[in-house]
């Protein structure tokens, strides 16, 4: 498989997550830290950067919340963010040892 095929496969995998659109998946993949599952896992779970390494699990789950593109504003300027949920879904996908975890939390 070449890089393009691998990125298409990674995009299709991400799109299976609840709330993940094709555009959000491609925006995430376009960033070098998240271009493949190995890079993403290294960034969110095995990072040796002291700032990231000291984060709690809950904080690590939010690392990707700004990686999906622009946020949309709701009424009265309240930010409506699916990105937080997406960030948690991707973190759980990449770190969970329980195969049913994502299905049971949707």
Summarize the model shown.
With 106 residues, the protein is mainly alpha-helical. The chain has helices spanning 3-15, 22-29, 37-44, 50-53, 57-60, 83-95, 101-104, and strands at residues 72-73, 79-80. Strands 1-2 form a two-stranded antiparallel ribbon.
Structure, explained:
This protein is mainly alpha-helical. It contains seven helices and two strands, in the order αααααββαα. It has a two-stranded antiparallel sheet with strand order 1-2. Strand 1 and strand 2 (79-80) form a beta hairpin. Helix 1 packs across helix 2. It starts with a helix and ends with a helix.
How would the blueprint of this fold be written?
Blueprint: H1 3-15, H2 22-29, H3 37-44, H4 50-53, H5 57-60, E1 72-73, E2 79-80, H6 83-95, H7 101-104
Helix pairs in contact: 1-2
Structural key phrases:
single chain; 106 residues; mainly alpha; DNA polymerase, domain 1; 7 helices; 51% helix
| CATH fold-level topology | DNA polymerase, domain 1
Strand content: under 5%
The H/E string reads HHHHHEEHH
Helix content: 40-55%
Number of strands: 2
| Strands ordered across the widest β-sheet | 1-2
CATH class: Mainly Alpha
Report the principal-axis shape.
Answer: globular
Low-confidence stretches: none
* Major sheet size, sense and barrel closure: 2 strands, antiparallel
Q: State the separation between the terminal residues, measured CA to CA.
A: 32 Å
Give the second-level CATH assignment, the architecture.
Orthogonal Bundle
Rg: 14 Å
Structural class: mainly alpha
List the domain count as a whole number.
1
């Amino acid at each position: 498989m070449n890089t393009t095929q691998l990125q298409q496969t990674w995009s299709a995998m991400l799109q299976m997550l609840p709330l993940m659109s094709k555009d959000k998946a491609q925006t995430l993949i376009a960033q070098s830290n998240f271009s493949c599952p190995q890079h993403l896992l290294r960034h969110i779970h095995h990072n040796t950067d002291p700032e990231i390494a000291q984060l709690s699990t809950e904080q690590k789950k939010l690392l990707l919340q700004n990686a999906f593109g622009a946020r949309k504003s709701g009424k009265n300027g309240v930010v409506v963010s699916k990105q937080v949920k997406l960030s948690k879904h991707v973190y759980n996908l990449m770190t969970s040892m329980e195969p049913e975890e994502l299905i049971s939390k949707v």
